[in-house]
């Protein structure tokens, strides 16, 4: 059993190991102790081709000074000859009597050092401070196991579920705190990866910076993947590390090449197409999802200024012409532009139970009239209201009612196809993204319908089991979020994956039973279902296939200037 002195020496060896670089070889530290427990020498590995930690420490001693000593090392002494000789043999030849190490070497080529030491009569003990040592070189161990770097894929989106603006422009989706976290993650990675599309559109620097915009000391190697050319003046070419460019879509080959260059951890921050490819090909070890607590400024559904009208006014002013006001035909209602700080999403917190009062044909759909005193109290033409989970737009309104058109596609996807006068419905006004999020993010886009199979009343709540379509089953997880008839609920149980008739269960408290139409549900009642937006994004990412999957090369095509 290791002594207190040896444990302290191992902790010191771990500190020394951190001085070494991350790369092809692991970070390893060593301390040589005298028979009395005094420190004779210290060393650490300075990178591929340099002496290993044990040899580095021994080199600081005069010949014979290590005889009878104890070597404390963070990784099992190697037993192979590469660029340097076997460390186990060096310890034996130096006369070391005892070796204490933390982790067994996981590689076939270098393992066996402990066995060789024991065969030579050296006392060997392993497993001292093993967890700390494993945490230090976890990424290197992962590379030895998988043959590629550890991959973290970052996915950022706004509350409206988008990762980029419709017009191709790009804005920060996340806030300052999230960006600080991302830059810290960049600094901890060996390489940061982006696609040529992102580099062309956003011109990112791909650097790690502090809150003031200054470069951090640790910088990842920038990697650009894709067949499109990178602009000679692109910001990535001014990165403090030499960028790598891969003109290919063969991601496993890119990762293998990066591993061969000593890259242990990769941070993918290159847009939804590249992120989807990594996830789809099973190359994402970790997915970092960042949601903005509000819509992205250019991504939010806000009224956009019409450049044409502005241009006409500026041109007329330059020419000294007074533009004539555009006249609206008699009887035509002016367009309503909702407040841009409203009408962005729902939260699944029902505000009132309304009722359908009329159903009239409207094109290939229907026009509904609904009694909704609270919902119309501050609603205007064009605003959004959730009707049993379906996002509908107000086209007309009165003191306590409003009308909305429902297209055929929505009728086919929801329970509104069977709506009739007198039917109660859950109503919720759209919520401002800067407001309080009471439930979860609900878009009002129904994924399908389910049918209540049973209701099990309890002393404090009722459990409702709902049969769901098989294509929605993968999107529903235990303890995940779901909207049922517009009500934000937590899934309390799900069927087995192999169940041919999938179902989910939710528990309803008395307040929910009283304040929503779910309190009237019974076996056979159809309900609208909206799954969590993140689940749908991941499903889409896994299904997406790039148009061109031909690999052009597995090696960098060019190297930018430092």
UniProtKB/TrEMBL annotation:
Residues 298-342 are annotated as: Disordered. Residues 299-340 have a biased composition (Basic residues). The keyword Hydrolase does not apply. Residues 4-125 form the CMP/dCMP-type deaminase domain. Residues 345-440, 441-542 form the Lumazine-binding domain. Pathway: Cofactor biosynthesis; riboflavin biosynthesis; riboflavin from 2-hydroxy-3-oxobutyl phosphate and 5-amino-6-(D-ribitylamino)uracil: step 2/2; Cofactor biosynthesis; riboflavin biosynthesis; 5-amino-6-(D-ribitylamino)uracil from GTP: step 2/4; Cofactor biosynthesis; riboflavin biosynthesis; 5-amino-6-(D-ribitylamino)uracil from GTP: step 3/4. It comes from the Bacteria. The keyword Nuclease does not apply. Lumazine-binding repeats lie at residues 345-440, 441-542. Pfam families: dCMP_cyt_deam_1, Lum_binding, RibD_C. It catalyses: 2 6,7-dimethyl-8-(1-D-ribityl)lumazine + H(+) = 5-amino-6-(D-ribitylamino)uracil + riboflavin; 5-amino-6-(5-phospho-D-ribitylamino)uracil + NADP(+) = 5-amino-6-(5-phospho-D-ribosylamino)uracil + NADPH + H(+); 2,5-diamino-6-hydroxy-4-(5-phosphoribosylamino)-pyrimidine + H2O + H(+) = 5-amino-6-(5-phospho-D-ribosylamino)uracil + NH4(+). Its EC number is 2.5.1.9. It is an enzyme of class 2 (transferase). PROSITE patterns: CYT_DCMP_DEAMINASES_1, CYT_DCMP_DEAMINASES_2, LUMAZINE_BIND. InterPro entries: APOBEC/CMP_deaminase_Zn-bd, ATP_synth_asu-like_sf, CMP_dCMP_dom, Cytidine_deaminase-like, DHFR-like_dom_sf, Eubact_RibD, Lumazine-bd, Lumazine-bd_dom. Keywords: Metal-binding, Multifunctional enzyme, Repeat, Riboflavin biosynthesis, Transferase, Zinc. In the N-terminal section; belongs to the cytidine and deoxycytidylate deaminase family. In the C-terminal section; belongs to the HTP reductase family. Catalyzes the dismutation of two molecules of 6,7-dimethyl-8-ribityllumazine, resulting in the formation of riboflavin and 5-amino-6-(D-ribitylamino)uracil. This is Riboflavin synthase. It comes from Microbacterium trichothecenolyticum.
